[in-house]
Amino acid sequence: MPAADAAIDALRERIPSSPILTDPDVTEGYRRDFAKDPDAGRPLAVVRATSTADVQEVMCWASENAIAVIPRGAGSGLSGGATAVTGGIVLTTELMQDIEVDPVTRTAVVQPGLLNAEVKKAVAEHGLWYPPDPSSFEICSIGGNAATNAGGLCCVKYGVTTDYILGMEVVLADGKAVRLGGPRLKDSAGFSLTKLFVGSEGTLGIITEVIIRLIPKQAPASTVVGTFPTVADSTQAILDITRVMRPAMLEFMDRASIRAVEDVKRMGLDVDAHGMLIAQSDSPGADCSREVEFMAEAFRNNNAADVFTTDDPEEGEAFAAARRFAIPAVERKGTLLLEDVGVPLPALPQLIERIEEIAAERDVLIAVIAHAGDGNTHPLIVHDPNDAEETARANLAFGEIMDFAISLGGTITGEHGVGRLKKNWLPSQVGEDVMDLTRRIKSALDPQNLLNPGAMF
Amino acid sequence: MPAADAAIDALRERIPSSPILTDPDVTEGYRRDFAKDPDAGRPLAVVRATSTADVQEVMCWASENAIAVIPRGAGSGLSGGATAVTGGIVLTTELMQDIEVDPVTRTAVVQPGLLNAEVKKAVAEHGLWYPPDPSSFEICSIGGNAATNAGGLCCVKYGVTTDYILGMEVVLADGKAVRLGGPRLKDSAGFSLTKLFVGSEGTLGIITEVIIRLIPKQAPASTVVGTFPTVADSTQAILDITRVMRPAMLEFMDRASIRAVEDVKRMGLDVDAHGMLIAQSDSPGADCSREVEFMAEAFRNNNAADVFTTDDPEEGEAFAAARRFAIPAVERKGTLLLEDVGVPLPALPQLIERIEEIAAERDVLIAVIAHAGDGNTHPLIVHDPNDAEETARANLAFGEIMDFAISLGGTITGEHGVGRLKKNWLPSQVGEDVMDLTRRIKSALDPQNLLNPGAMF
């Protein structure tokens, strides 16, 4: 492709300080995110942008040459939002990692490549806290968090990424960089464009900076853990808790997840239980122990065995870590198709029950973990990609779970985004009229369809 | 206008169950919102919609006849967002007042005409709380709150309207009704269209239902009040507090506001003080008294006299009510041009100082109240509309305050919206590129410019 080569050479001249990778052995590592999309293409190049100005140059160049640009954060996405396309380039913001914390306004200006954990650490030095905590917080970037409106474990009380993004700088399809919002807690001037770009998965622009809202550091959390003889008992305990109080965490693991974690970690988890709940309260003072005792009582009222409470944050964190470890633990049993369906809370028991049936019907292992307090579940569908027949069954289960979540008034994705893996289900969730609205906005902002083509639509 | 009359007659036949008012004596009451826009036009009719289906019919009819539609909630807006235009109609949702509370998912489905206070009351019956609390909460509607992304006093801790809107039903320019979002705490499926419509001031669609997020009822608040010898002392106290903790309320009144309230209420406020702060903590248990004592200490450290604390919620509410009463109290001195500028917190002292200078330079009374904890101020510019010269000076001050807020990295509107009164300043706040982006979205969704033409743009 000499024309393409010439175009890449021209790009090199325009952005001398941003590395451009073209060696196929190197670009191979940028073809897929954690969704391991089997349909990933081969990019012309990978641009490791080092500045907003260079991202602007890339988009000007892409517009002139009609070349698709796949924006990429840390590549930890789970829906194929950063899958490379043949003939396009991948633009990663992984090298852009500055952060400036302003403790007086309790905000920080952050470049997109900084990892979520690094953001948390930098603001903690000022006694501040950035709540959103995807399980992947040690390896996912704040830019990717903003692009997917990422969630996490504490969102049940503290909200999701969009609740903490006050403003951003974003490079549009035509190469213009605009500043949206700012370090102001209140701003009703014009459309809420910041909020529109959060969760737009790189299809409307490339986020080159975010302004995040911070809150005073979290009080030490107390934890309650319990195992249940049936899934129904554990989901009833969830409802008994959430109708009265807001836990700082309320996580569910089913038997397959418990066993997968216990296989590796040897924590002494009850491998005969059908459900485990891990809940936390971070309310201050006496309220904390009152809330933990209330939750422990809700566990016991629903037949929990081994109800364990602790006010030692490290001991509590060990259980949260076990829950976060569930995905890698289950992954040892095979390749995962990772679901992210959510439903209104009262429908949670129905959803988990139906997932068990689908696993049986399709004869695949499905381990279920859930941010149970907000109705967001992660069924992990295990399969061997070299077994075409099993893979086909896993894919059927993947679709059936989304179909069922939609039928319950739920969502196909609570926090991972639509990407390429779930886009065929988006119309049946939101309806054709909303798809039309979505396409009109996309066309208005990216008429050449240069930005992340194939994702979401 | 026989053609217009015929069109209205045709509309009557299409929506027999929604009253259509055409008597000029009656429609007069719908020509302006609380901004009292002097340029208000004379509408062909006022439609009091009673259902989503009728709003759809109205928009189909408006599209066919190219007639502008001014959406209107309770008419309590302060930026002229609901000013009528000649040749158009006003569509008010004031008759749509249903609410359905779901205590298990802690959400409510609400029609737009229900007043904010009525929403609070309905959910309180289930032990729940809808936080956003504009000072006008007893007379403003939830639909208008959503359309302007309204704020209030508790937003410093609890966030603004957009943080509580999980979904909505909205009628588009072409008459289609779409459902966005839903009763799910997490949803990353597709663009965040719900958030785009919040704060779009009726220029993109007509909100016919909102799904709001509720939280458990607020703990009883303790209050601390203090008066300061200088504005600078009070703003320093604000910064000393917000850098450490999150009060549940942190309100400022300047001397002119204190005096205006005292004139009417006779509460014994110190009319020689140059600033008064009213702060609250609603943290549970011992944390509440600890926070109140911390704030009282910050007051004293900044030369406050008469620092008064109370854990009696009713006594505290009397001070909050005094603060909310400041606007009507100042209004007794003349007609108000009501500002809503916000700045990053450290710039608050500069802003208030400059407002005092502008008042002196332009020889108009400007009383300043502020949601000080989030940097959002309401300078109230008093003038006599029958005095053309004074009105001109007031208008100059109005613009100069916005210009100065913009120069400090602030916003022209923290919570009231742009409407018609502030639209000339929007481009200088957000820049031409963002205006272009905004116009592209507006054109994509409302190509005929039927929805609230003249507002925001």
UniProtKB/TrEMBL annotation, chains A, B:
InterPro entries found in the cross-reference section: FAD-bd_oxidored_4_C, FAD-bd_PCMH, FAD-bd_PCMH-like_sf, FAD-bd_PCMH_sub2, FAD-linked_Oxase-like_C, FAD-linked_OxidoTrans_Type4, Oxid_FAD_bind_N, Vanillyl_alc_oxidase_C-sub2
Cofactor: FAD
Keyword Lipoprotein: no
Family annotation (PROSITE patterns): FAD_PCMH
Gene Ontology MF term list: FAD binding; oxidoreductase activity
Family affiliation: Belongs to the FAD-binding oxidoreductase/transferase type 4 family.
PANTHER family associated with the record: GLYCOLATE OXIDASE SUBUNIT GLCD
Name the UniProt record assigns to this protein: Glycolate oxidase subunit GlcD
